[in-house]
Every structure is written in structure tokens, then in C-alpha cells.
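step=predict obj=ATP-binding cassette domain-containing protein n=255
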Amino acid sequence: MIEVKNLHKGFGDVQVLKGITTTFYPGKTNLIIGQSGSGKTVFLKSLIGLHTPEKGTISFDGRINTNFTEEEKQEWRQEIGMVFQGSALFDSQTVEDNVMFPLKMFTKKSHGEMLERVNVVLKRVKLENSNDKLPAELSGGMQKRVAIARAIVMNPKYLFCDEPNSGLDPRTAIVIDKLIQEITDEYQITTVINTHDMNSVMEIGEKIVFLNKGKKEWEGTSEDIFETENEAVVSFVYSSNLFKKVREAHLNKTK
Ligand SMILES: Nc1ncnc2c1ncn2[C@@H]1O[C@H](COP(=O)(O)OP(=O)(O)OP(=O)(O)O)[C@@H](O)[C@H]1O
């Protein structure tokens, strides 16, 4: 569980995050949405410790990250998995080496043990038999699977994803979203995803936090988002005609 309390972060005179309070539970896909510039990236970077809060706290299962000793910080880093926009794989390394990287970096396992673990996670993302391929030989969707395998190879408690399905066609994007949701549930990971993708909101939004100008404007589930009267949420989420129609149909059905 990640508890964010009254989080403030700014740069110079510009206040970006203005007192965000929310809780993310294990086993749930938590989505951060909001207009460009609303503070989603600064929020995610604060969660992974790249920004230090000016005020407020972020605690990981009761442990406040700004209070960590160097040793605790090292331990906590190993509890975190990350999936970046564009997959961020090492182009000159094979799939196997990409996925093995965190194990080599953080553990003293033997090569055999590492390989065993790599094969488990590659199987989980349905990429068995791709060990020797280079990223360039894979489709965008397969590259994302490698990135997910690498993110979970250390068996993380927390998973952070920045636009995990950017650049994918809608069908592949949903497959990747569902994979993240299944893994989150299976391993009871606390997963936080930054997204622009309204399909993701509808498909895997178990908890959605809507940021507006650095404040938490609204939070709820993908079901709640159909029913909300919050004007800022409605105008953002239902800005396309397609989603407007989906919402109208849903509301008519439940009347
Ligand atoms: N390191 C920084 N220094 C100064 N200002 C910053 C820094 N990082 C972000 N900002 C500012 O914070 C605001 C929020 O940026 P952020 O990148 O978090 O938005 P976002 O919601 O992720 O946008 P997008 O959807 O376009 O990625 C912007 O006005 C940005 O210019």
C-alpha cells in the first residue's frame, strides 16, 4: 500500500503539486489521469523518489521514503518495478540479458538461478523462446512485454508505469493493459500507471485519480467515472464523440 498525504512539489516559484492525498492498494491498477501539464509526471517521479516533496509524505507500507537510511533506500529500490514509455530496453542486448539486468545489478544469484527466474517471467508474459532475440527484432507489443518481464523479475511490491501502451495499436494496447492488471492481481502488486489512454481508464481503472492543475480533482473507479457529474472530469474524459456516446448509452441503460 502506498499512502500519499498532502504532497506538495514545485520548482522555483511554480507550484506543481498542491497538496495531493490518496491511497493506492495492493492488487489494484491505479491510474493517474489529467490534462497535459496537470502534474502526472511530477507525481509519478515523486513516488519513485526522483523528486523530494516540499511538504507532505509518501509512505510505502508504513515506511516514509524521505526517512529512509541509505540501506533502507537500497532495499526499497529493489521492491520497485518500472515500465517506461517506449519500453527503454537496451538495444544491443538480447531479451534474456535485458530481463536479467536487475538480477545482475541487485542480487548475488548464480547465472543458473537468474536464468531460471528470467524464464519464469518471460513465460508469464508469453515470450518463451525469445531469449536470444534483440529488441529490434520484436514488435512494439513484444517489446512492452519484455519491459514488463524486466519490471517484475525482482518480484516487486510496487510497479510504476509511465504511459505503458503508448505507440501501440488499440488492440495491442488493451492486451498490454490487461497483462499489467493480471500481474498486479496475481502478485498483489501496488501498481500506479500514468496514462492518457481513455481505453485504459475504462478497461483497467480500478482506481482512477484525476489531477487538475496539481490538485486531486476527483478519484473513483471506471464505473464511477460514467456516473460522475464533476465537470472537469466529464469534459476531459468525454472529450471525444465516441466516449460521449458510450457515456450517454451507459446512463440511459441505468436510468
Ligand atoms: N524539473 C522541472 N522543473 C521545472 N518545472 C517542471 C519540472 N518538471 C515539470 N515541471 C512543470 O510542472 C508542470 C507539470 O508537468 P508534468 O510533466 O508533471 O505534467 P504532465 O501532467 O505529466 O503532462 P503530460 O501529460 O504532457 O506528460 C509543467 O508546467 C512543467 O513545466
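step=describe
Residues 11, 14, 16, 34, 36-42 surround adenosine-5'-triphosphate (CB under 6 Å).
step=end
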